[in-house]
Amino acid sequence: MQENRTLLLIDGFNLLSRGYFATAYGKTEDQLYKSSNGVYTNALRVFFQKMFSLVRTKEVTHLAVAWDVKREESSRRQKYDFYKATRGELPAPLIMQYEVLREVLDKAGVKQLSVPSFEADDVIGTISTLWSANEFGSCYIYSNDRDLFQLLNERTTQIIAGRAGETHYTIDQFRLDYGIDSRQWVDVKALLGDASDNIPGCPGIGEKTALPLIQHYETLEGIYEQLEELDPKFNRCRKKLHAGRESAFISKELAQIICDIEEFSDWTHEELMYSPDHDLLKAELEKLDLKIRIS
Q1: Any idea what DSSP says for residue 194?
Q2: Nearest-angstrom CA–CA distance, 128 and 185
Q3: CA-based angle 183:136:113, to the nearest 5?
């Protein structure tokens, strides 16, 4: 057991896109910050500032940036074509900064992880699970994606950015807030769905009903095993549960984070050691006219 190790897993596109839209709000593309070489930098500045700040404040020893594959290449989308089908095209300046960021991180030796057919959530889920199981130390997940609540445990904390600052969301706080364990979060999502990912859930079941159902029956499967003897306080939603059975189970399949990607079966923690080339990083940031503290 090595308690002095600290892993930071960054949901790459979650941070980059939030940085982009926060700094692009109310602006046209020609009003966005650019380097003297014409490279858009508004999202890059946010990303690098946050990454280096987290490395310093959390005394990070291991780090990885996780990326999604293209939407149409994910196994979920290939099986269910409606999944994330409502999402629009990304702005060109954001795509440009994504490409620049990946190139800079690669040159500097900052580990980036992307696995064909899997999403960033699955990569983060697999690595954080392996890290926790081996008791390497603390793990911080930086993302505003609440699907990742599934991964919270005694060693894994999610850092969520908000208007009033950042929240370090622990498993204890999750249990206090929801009255369930983190592994049951997917069952709540199965009932509620997720409009941002076009996951349907169980039509007609809202927040006031979904969580109490899981608190009472523990899992989606538990609800349907006892549907004919449903507790009287849930009688009003019996018909909705009957009608939405297939949709709910598909939604659980889509919402479930995969934590055993085979490509990481021989993974070792040394692969994620954070030891970037600071001189190269500084030079790359200077090319982008970004003055950011990197250590």
Answers
A1: B
A2: 17
A3: 70
